[in-house]
Specification:
Elements: E1 3-4, H1 12-16, H2 27-35, H3 41-58, H4 64-87, H5 95-102, E2 103-108, H6 109-112, E3 122-128, H7 134-154, E4 159-165, H8 174-181, E5 184-189, H9 190-202, H10 206-224, H11 242-256, H12 263-269, H13 275-299, H14 308-317, H15 328-356, E6 359-362, E7 365-368, E8 371-374, H16 379-382, H17 385-397, E9 400-401, H18 403-415, H19 423-433, H20 439-449, H21 451-455, H22 457-463, H23 476-493, H24 496-503, H25 508-517, H26 528-542, H27 547-558, H28 562-569, H29 575-585, H30 588-605, H31 612-631, H32 639-653, H33 660-669, H34 672-677, H35 680-693, E10 699-703, E11 711-718, H36 725-735, E12 739-749, E13 753-762, H37 770-784, H38 790-796, E14 807-813, E15 821-828, H39 833-844, E16 846-856, E17 859-868, H40 879-893
Length: 894
């Protein structure tokens, strides 16, 4: 192998690639001669520092890029001397020869590009031909110690170090590929270095490399807000800065195979940019180099951000003068912005030039202008798995299908059997589901071309299936794809809490497959959740998922409505509700998947399906369930625990201005469910409301969170002797066109029965406006004080219940709560439905303790927690069936 030995590299041209020393600078050969004569750390470091100070002094007479090249050349001298010293071993005379054949020392980063500013990092890589050579290992370890001692300890210069094997060149990540594309040989075996470079470039995937570099650059600019026109620009990383020059060069190397040393002249020679544009790039690089040089020297450290206080000093050091039209600093910044805008345009142009190249993806497929194109018209017919890989390429590299590729895919679907049981096809499909982004886009593109239905025929059956309820605006298949899209959206662009929940999911691919298959059992007779669970299990097995994931998917599809139904229809304040839910869910990972899925499922039903109040109930259920899963023990488990909790509440309320006796009465009278689910601030307000209600006042309180679309309405009033207060409230709300989503009813029974009702309401889908709040308080007060009857108000507002009423299903469940019966009612939605239902309960003498109200399309599904005479309903001789009959009759009679 050709080796760059100390004896061969004695002239300046070989060391620095400069044609000659600057005119009148005779110090360089002398410095090199003295460096060659020292072998100790302090001696080498002393000459390094002397040479650096000399370069700093002489730099004012040199162009910007030449300054950086001379500083880089000085580091080259020192590194080469270090290798000589590391090879000195009287007891092993063959050490140097072997090291110079099997080890290459290379410069990377700014050092490799010869762009070193005074305090830039120095990045050095060692490339070894193998890892089992003791001589190479010995020299490398000695070199490492010298580098650390000379550069870091003595010269206080930042240095980076990496060790590579020749065999690693084929499998480097793109970050390392980038650094080594710009690698420059410094010492050791030039032939080994060239072999490494050849391997690196041979295994470089141009499409992957370009996509990753452009994406990385765009993310960096967006994340840091590094606009061309920042008042305090980052000369290195900012938009239009040095990094954009580097990006253009990297793209040219990847797409066109240019060498790093000649890339800009190759760009000129191939007409990718005009000669004038390349010349202007060199001018800007010189300008940036001078500017960075002065910024580093001025700060005495690495400094690439040109802050406002330093702009005037930088302008002066670069020789700018004030003029009547503008100051020196203003002129400097104007020229900088012009240069940065130009460089950014060059980077954009080179992105377009690189993308315009037809670059191979695999035999028969290539990428050009952002699209997958065919190099062989029968690529998919010859290899049906390539039909799936085409979408994986689109997802991975941000590509789209060309029209010809789409036609070829449709032809493949029509003429070839799907590779349903092909392990490679399963691997590609799972790779798509595991993608860091673009999962939904890939699946939707597959569906549009028929490939998804072809590969997963069970999904093909539901792609055009119209769902059986009016709430859904899309077919079953398209709805499922929208659920996948929204799941992905929540993980990428949801609020911070939701993104964290998504990030906690161990296998997002399982979530996406769950979203895709959750309704796959729809159509025909039978429970679609149960049927779908078995179908999803088969699909997961075909995709080669492990047994745990297969079972988890089956479970998720079977219970995909659990969280939605619980949040919409169950009283989340009851411990039993959360316990029952958690007992089914089992663990936090399943909970997180159900939460993300449920939000996405409801949103994807249609434009009117989602509301902020649903989001509130879902979040409440999630966090209550999470706490239960973490603690695995109830908060309050005995009367003794409850007494301790009451004492804690008393202490928290003692800091308020409320009379202690009022606090004591309230805490003693209210049930555990109230104490456990009401904040001290709310309790303090309630105590004041109750005090007024005891004097005969009607208290109403309205609370709305900023940005929410609902209002929390609290009503405090003397309770009616007979059931029916909530019915009157519901009637007033209906009269005023106010929608009710949920209600929580508490009664404080001491000297007087005081009702404390909280309702979640909206007006035309938004918070209650001020005029509606005033109207509600006025009309509610008149009805509850007997100044007008509810019927008079309804007639005045022209509200009449429809004559016909028909329940689709009424059920009474006595196993969901220790103390209440849960009444579920499904009915055709109609005006005044909540008023009708609450009136029916009042007729029967049933007390309502909480309610959930929801509507899907034209169907209302409402749930009420009720008691009759303080007991669950249906405990008499007629039983639950008799109670259902009585309720249905009462509903028809209202």
């Amino acid at each position: 192998m050709e080796a760059a030995s100390p004896g061969k590299d004695t002239d300046l041209k070989q060391l620095s690639d400069l044609d000659a020393a600057p005119a009148g600078q005779d110090w360089w050969p002398d410095l090199k001669g003295r460096l060659d004569a020292v072998s100790d750390v302090r001696g080498i470091a002393g000459i390094l520092l002397e040479g650096r100070e000399r370069v700093f002094r002489e730099a004012a007479d040199l162009p910007g890029r030449e300054r950086c090249r001379w500083l880089s050349a000085l580091i080259d001298l020192v590194v080469r001397r270090m290798l000589v010293v590391a090879c000195e071993d009287p007891e092993n005379p063959g050490l140097a020869g072997r090291a110079y054949r099997h080890l290459a020392v290379v410069a990377t980063g700014g050092y490799g590009r010869r762009e070193l500013a005074p305090y830039s990092d120095i990045d050095i890589n060692f490339i070894a031909s193998s890892e089992d050579d003791p001589d190479v290992d010995l020299v490398t370890r000695r070199m490492f110690r010298l580098i650390m001692d000379v550069f870091l300890a003595e010269a206080k210069m930042k240095v980076g170090y990496a060790y590579r094997l020749l065999s690693e060149a084929a499998a480097l990540q793109h970050q390392n590929q980038t650094a080594l594309l710009d690698a420059r040989f410094v010492a050791g075996s030039r032939e080994l270095f060239q072999s490494f470079q050849d391997e690196l470039r041979r295994h470089l995937h141009p499409v992957a490399f370009m996509h990753d570099k452009v994406r990385e650059r765009d993310l960096s600019i967006r994340r840091r807000g590094l606009s061309v026109y920042r008042v305090e620009p980052d000369i290195k990383e900012g938009e239009g800065g040095l990094r954009d020059v580097h990006l253009a060069g990297w793209l040219a190397q990847a797409a066109f195979g240019f060498g790093s040393e000649t890339v800009w002249e190759d760009i000129r020679a191939h007409g990718l940019l005009t000669s004038a544009e390349v010349d202007r790039v060199w001018e800007v690089l010189d300008f940036y180099s001078r500017l960075r040089w002065e910024m580093h020297l001025g700060a005495g450290r690495q400094a690439d951000v040109l802050t406002v206080p330093k702009q005037e000093a930088a302008a002066a050091s670069l020789g700018y003068q004030d003029s009547p039209e503008e100051s020196a600093a203003e002129r400097l910044m104007r020229e900088y912005y012009d240069a940065a805008a130009f460089i950014r345009s060059i980077a954009k142009k080179m992105m377009a030039r690189a993308r315009s190249q037809q670059l191979k993806l695999e035999p028969g497929l290539a990428a050009r202008d952002g699209r997958v194109v065919l190099q062989n018209p029968e690529a998919f017919l010859n290899d049906p798995v390539a039909a799936l890989r085409a979408f994986a390429y689109c997802q991975r590299y941000g590509l789209r299908l060309s029209l010809e590729a789409e036609d070829a895919l449709r032809q493949c679907v029509a003429l070839r059997a799907a590779p349903v049981d092909n392990p490679e096809a399963a691997r590609v499909m799972m790779m798509i589901l595991r993608g860091q982004s673009g999962v939904a886009d890939a699946l939707i593109a597959m569906a549009r071309t028929g490939v998804l239905q072809w590969y997963i025929p069970e999904f093909g059956r539901v792609m055009g299936l119209v769902p059986g309820d009016a709430a859904h605006e899309y077919t079953v298949g398209w709805h499922s794809l929208m659920v996948v899209r929204h799941c992905e959206h929540l993980g990428e662009a949801g609020d911070e809490e939701t993104r964290q929940i998504f990030a906690s999911i161990r296998h997002p691919e399982l979530l996406f497959l769950f979203a895709l298959t959750h309704d796959i059992g729809k159509g025909g007779a039978g429970d679609h959740s149960e049927k779908g669970a078995l179908i999803a299990r088969d699909i997961a097995s075909r995709l080669g998922m492990d047994a745990e994931s297969v079972e988890r998917l089956e479970f998720l599809v079977r219970h995909h409505l659990l969280m939605s139904d619980t949040a919409r229809l169950r009283d989340l304040n009851l411990r039993r509700t959360v316990e029952d839910f958690v007992n089914v869910v089992g663990d936090r990972d399943t909970l997180s998947m159900l939460y993300i899925f449920t939000m996405s499922d409801v949103v994807s039903v249609g434009s009117s399906a989602w509301s902020e109040i649903q989001g509130r109930f879902l979040r409440e259920l999630y966090y209550r369930a999470e706490r239960a899963l973490v603690s695995r023990a109830p908060l309050i488990d005995s009367e003794e625990d409850l007494d301790l909790y009451r004492s804690r509440v008393r202490r928290e309320l003692s800091i308020t201005n409320l009379p202690p006796e009022a606090v004591e009465r309230h805490v003693a009278a209210m049930p555990a469910i109230y104490l456990l689910n009401t904040s001290p601030e709310e309790m303090a307000s309630h105590i004041e409301f109750i005090s007024k209600a005891e004097q005969g006042e009607i208290c109403t309180d309205f609370r709305s969170e900023q940005g929410s679309d609902f209002t929390e309405l609290t009503i405090c009033v003397r309770d009616d002797p007979q059931p029916g207060l909530l019915s009157k409230i519901a009637g007033v709300l209906w009269a005023l066109d106010i929608n009710v989503h949920a209600a929580q009813v508490f009664t404080r029974e001491q000297d007087q029965k005081i009702a404390l009702d909280t309702l979640y309401v909206d007006f035309e889908g938004q918070q209650l406006p001020e005029f509606k709040k005033h109207e509600l308080h006025r009309e509610l007060r008149r009805v509850l004080l007997g100044e007008q009857t509810l019927q008079e108000l309804l007639e005045r507002k022209r509200k009449t219940l429809p004559e016909e009423y028909q329940s689709r299903r009424v059920s009474i469940l006595n196993d969901l709560s220790e103390s209440h019966s849960v009444v579920d009612i499904r009915a055709v939605d109609q005006p005044g439905l909540l008023y009708r239902m609450t009136s029916a309960f009042a007729r029967l003498g049933w007390d309502i303790h909480s309610a959930r109200v929801s509507t899907w399309g034209n169907e209302a599904r409402d749930s009420f927690y009720v008691t009759e005479g303080g007991r669950k309903v249906g405990t008499d001789a007629d039983g639950v069936e008799g109670a259902v009959r009585r309720l249905e009759e009462a509903l028809r009679q209202v």
